[in-house]
Amino acid sequence: MKSREEEYREIFMVEALEYYDAMSRHISELEKNPADAAALNELFRLMHNLKANARAMGYPAISEVAHRMETIFGLIRDKERTFEGNVVPVLFTGVDTIGEMIRAVGAGNELPSADTLLANLDRLVNGEEPILEDQPEADDDDANRKLELSDLVYIQIKKLDHLMNLVGELIIDRDRILTLSKESDSPALQATAAHLFRISDELQYSIMDVRLVNVGSLFNKFPRVVRDVAAAEKKDIALEVDGQDIQIDRNILQIITDSLLHLVRNAIGHGIEAPAVREQAGKPAQGQLTLAAQTERDNVLIQVSDDGAGINVDSVRRKAVERGLVSAEAAQQLDDDAVRAFLFEPGFSMAKEITDISGRGVGLDVVKLAIDSLGGQLRVSSTLGKGTTFTLVLPTSIAVKGALLFELDARSYAIPLMHTDSVVSLQPEDLHVVGGLLLAEVQDENVPVVDLRRLLHNGDGPLPPANRHELQGRQDIIIVNYNNRKLGLIIDRFLRQQSIVIKPMSKPLDTIDLFGGVTLLGSGQVCLVLDVPALTRLFLAKRP
Amino acid sequence: MKNRILIVDDSFYMRTMLKNMLTDAGYEVVGEAANGQQALEMAAATRPDLITLDVILPDNTGLDVLKGIREDQPDVKVVMCSAVGQEVIVNEALESGATAYIVKPFSEEKVLEIVGSALQTSGSSEA
């Protein structure tokens, strides 16, 4: 853990070097155009900030130089001095000296003396001629000066994507080599393979780390959005933002931008009530909207919460029946979570009137699709009259996912851990048949169970009614979870849990949405990655 | 309920220091703005109890921001942050409705004292 003093020092250094770079740039602009007001203002401001920061940080020498430079740039700005003649080299020396001093601080060296410079700057302030050192010597210094480059580089995300893909390939080959080495009896090969494993692991995590950005870089755009939307909707809303420091892959943040925008607009448009309505309900007139991020195990949770009217489960239930998504009888038996899940069905809108802000463009189904494409989860919880919270469960990084490997008909398959709830082994007598459907009681909840082999190979028609007596012996079942719906899949055998690199399916197989992609196992075997959302939809379509 | 504070300063270093001081003292820092535009947006969106406002900002001067905020929120307390040599601007700010001012570099004690007493000044609309 860094001490606060160290943290301040680091921030001071980074910012001071930025200031120095900007000062060098602006003073060169000023040399080309001495009347450049924008450059003058910036120089004044940068000197001002450096002065204050250096003084607070305990570097009075830097502060002294910056203070005088600020004064002179202020005088030039106010047309009391002009940027010409002997003023120019003195101010250039001033900027150079500031650079030297900052670098000396960074290197832990003693700061260079600035007495000559300070005397000349005082002369300029007092309207006197500066005393310049021998011109040729100064030129020599300039000519020999080393060019300093910033410690920071900007990288196009495209290049990082490419690196990430290469690492993905590398990991697959690495796993293959590791398996081969174990089969061989060469200790040297085994040791090298083990080393390759560690190094490539570190490489993979380093590249993942480089791609991480603060969630705050997206959150910070929201105060403006909230203000504009609230004004258009005539709502009074306070926005609270929390967890800006949480880090996530830059591309994931990019993909969820529109979703987050939609959820926030929805919360203001439909969630939070008009001030008068709120007051009638005994709530403060000002609505509260919270954007929060936190980490949970390997995932990042982003929550959009409002203290608005909440979701009326009964109206959603009615609407779902009206739209034929579920029969009236079945609807009555669904619990609240299952009913709220209808909100994510394509084209399902609860908006009574379409407002400019929230009634157009993407619906919750599109939000859901975006989150699904990342292998994430979208959840909603709500209390009528109290408010609604949407939770986005996102992977920290896109390339590598934790997965559960299992076997079915002697083939290996993988299911992303993000969608696995639990694994259970049950005897046939632990399963019940209700309405042609197998049900298992898992953690006090009745979960429908289906033989995965049947689900995948049954053709287009509905599944035949389940029969418990067909099951022989202990059944290995993976409970998957999608959109608050749990589903048990009977498989042949659990293999293991493993990090996998998912490669998208190539054409023409990419249209089979049951499989999210493929991965290569260390054995060289191709392993299909099951797409839980598609599998759940398939089950709902084919259930008896 | 914690008093909610918005920090406006173009230096990340200053913002970090102020934020730590205020958070440690039990205030809630609701936002940090680095320029005048952001300051106006965040002030409108977060409706803070108090704003610490740097007098020199990249796009507007602190004075313009002060006037902008005052039009919208007459009751928010505004503490101007200045450095030595800006007495003229500070005086003008006080005439334009700033509640108080602090001179940089500031000590933690001084910041808390001035922020604390600014929050106590009358004219607050809060019940």
UniProtKB/TrEMBL annotation, chain A:
Domain Histidine kinase: 159-398
The enzyme's E.C. designation: 2.7.13.3
Protein name per its UniProtKB record: Chemotaxis protein CheA
Gene3D superfamilies registered for this protein in UniProt: Histidine kinase CheA-like, homodimeric domain, Histidine kinase-like ATPase, C-terminal domain, HPT domain, SH3 Domains
Residues in HPt domain copies: 1-105
PANTHER family to which the protein is assigned, alphabetical: CHEMOTAXIS PROTEIN CHEA (PTHR43395:SF10), SENSOR HISTIDINE KINASE CHEA (PTHR43395)
PTM-bearing positions, type Phosphohistidine: 48
Keywords tagged on the record: ATP-binding, Chemotaxis, Kinase, Nucleotide-binding, Phosphoprotein, Transferase, Two-component regulatory system
Catalyzed reactions per annotation: ATP + protein L-histidine = ADP + protein N-phospho-L-histidine
Keyword set includes Phosphoprotein: yes
Sequence ranges assigned to domain CheW-like in this UniProt record: 400-541
CDD domains: HPT
Function as written in the Swiss-Prot or TrEMBL entry: Involved in the transmission of sensory signals from the chemoreceptors to the flagellar motors. CheA is autophosphorylated; it can transfer its phosphate group to either CheB or CheY.
Record-linked Pfam families: CheW, H-kinase_dim, HATPase_c, Hpt
TrEMBL record, chain B:
Modified residues (4-aspartylphosphate): 54
Residue ranges constituting the Response regulatory domain according to the UniProt record: 4-119
Alphabetical list of SMART domains matching this protein: REC (SM00448)
Claim: Phosphoprotein is one of the keywords in the record: yes
UniProt keyword terms in alphabetical order: Phosphoprotein, Two-component regulatory system
Descriptive protein name: Response regulator
